[in-house]
Fold this sequence. Notes:
Chain A has helices at about 15-20, 30-35, 45-50, 70-75, 90-95, 105-110, 145-150, 155-165, and strands at about 1-10, 55, 80-85, 100-105, 115-120, 125-130, 135. With about 170 residues, chain A is an alpha/beta fold. The longest helix of chain A has 10 residues, at about 155-165. Chain B folds into two domains: about 5-260, Aconitase, domain 3, CATH 3.30.499; about 270-420, 2-Layer Sandwich (Aconitase, domain 3), CATH 3.30.499.10. Chain B is built from 15 helices and 18 strands. A five-stranded parallel beta sheet of chain B has the order 4-3-2-5-6. Chain B has a five-stranded parallel beta sheet with strand order 16-15-14-17-18. Chain B has a four-stranded parallel beta sheet with strand order 10-9-8-11. Chain B starts with a helix and ends with a helix. At the A-B interface, α5, α7 and α8 of A face β1 and α5 of B.
Amino acid sequence: MELKGYSFLFGDDIDTDAIIPARYLNTSDPAELAEHVMEDADPDFANRFQAGDFIVAGKNFGCGSSREHAPIAIKAAGLSGVVAESFARIFYRNAFNMGLPIFESSEAVADIESGDELKIDMDSGQIHNLTKGRSYHTLPTPPFMKELINAGGLVPFVRKKVENGGYA
Amino acid sequence: MPMTISEKILAAHAQADQLVPGQLIEARLDFVFGNDITAPIAIDVFHKAGGKKVFDPQRVALIPDHFVPNKDIQSAQQAKILRDFAREHELPWYWEVGRMGIEHVLLPEQGLVLPGDLIIGADSHTCTYGALGAFATGVGSTDLGAAMVTGRAWFKVPESIKIIYKGQLRPHVGGKDLILYAIGQLGVDGARYKALEITGETIANLPMDDRFTISNMAIEAGAKVGIIPPDELTENYVKTRAKRPYHFYQADSDAEYQAVYEWDVSRMEPQVAKPHLPENTVPVTELADVAIDQVVIGSCTNGRIGDIRVAAQILKGKKVSPEIRCIIIPGSQEVYQTALKEGLFDIFTEAEAAISTPTCGPCLGGYMGILADGEVAVSTTNRNFLGRMGHINSEVYLASPAVAAASAITGHITHPAEVAGE
């Protein structure tokens, strides 16, 4: 599985209020949430990125509330995923459970500049910076997790298995 | 490659020979459960995921404990969702008031969570079962709902931090003091996402009830689990209770830890965590002037028979200060009955303390002891966050059952030796 897009840089400790402000939590419609993605970290962000682009951030991305709306907003906005130095624990679980690919790599975060074109090979765990011609290491995404992401998250993943007679 | 206890348990459940920290795995679960707050959402997820029946009725528990006996109509509705689901799916591990206990007291007692197990619960204090040598961690309702269908969950293999306690404890010092001290040293996020391995001669000599208290509060340092290596005491605890086979895992002597802390606790005083974080830990003697309004003795942290016995020893022949409410909440029906048979309820009622049926109640500001504006409590519970036990201007000091009982007698924070006349 490969993901490709341009990078948008954010700092450390980007909290879930910055990712999707609480004033928009009166809906759980992914499309509506997507319109406000990262609004309090960069008000103009939603107008600048293209489908497939990446958020690249520092330490502790997704700290704060446990709202699942945060990874839903990023995913519904069409972003490929998030590369960060580290993720807050609950965001980390929520992201995979909502089907959003995320990658930890301090090496990548230290080197990537805004607008660099990235290609991430989930099988090998290589992050290729096509602009700079360099590669960084992240842990490969194991097959079950790719299946979960492809299904669109944990609930559809289980549902698909149930429907195929996977869990009798 | 050498492995820690956590890595060994996770490897065994993921059918892997070797694991490295950071790796994502999918693993088989031995036991899953939720309570009256988290399970209703998990049951909704279960249905959305197309669940028809649970993966194994013997390995799923639903425990109404937070707001039961039902505190209001909403909590009655929540509890009913669990009851209806348990009946529909013929789940054996569901308990009504009168049989029920606080989940983390009840499940080990019932022999449903065991050494070597991989367990998830939709409650942050699921880490309690680390005291049995199990890998047990709290998850959200979505994870629980999915796991009720699949019997599996994904994990990121955590790095481990080793804590070694050395020295013989002084009188009135126990498990609660050891874990409060650790949280004070590590900070509330000092072990974030890490597995704690809690060892040393002090732990080897510590009763199981104290060990449960230690593992219970691992989450207050941010840890995913707080594992205590299983030994003869563990064996004695589980052998008559276990509902199925279990396995002891020990770390390899050359296993790798992200950090190792070694603390000599032979001179340690009872510890108290000041408002509003569990990391604000100081020796009890530093807080002797703090006047209080309420004492709570109980919870998943300190509601076991060992805790109730300690409180009874201190309160025996004494009276709760007339200015103070002292609420004692045995953690399960077994604890309740044992305390009753041992005559401890006579001690408490003669001391003019109130005794409640098991519930999480006041710990999370639910009911059965909510604090008013400006009130101060000493509590044997696990969190003293702003407003945790009631009004936003109330304060909670976290302490052991010995300190809590001693403070109930004097009306201010008190070293147990003071009331024991030592």
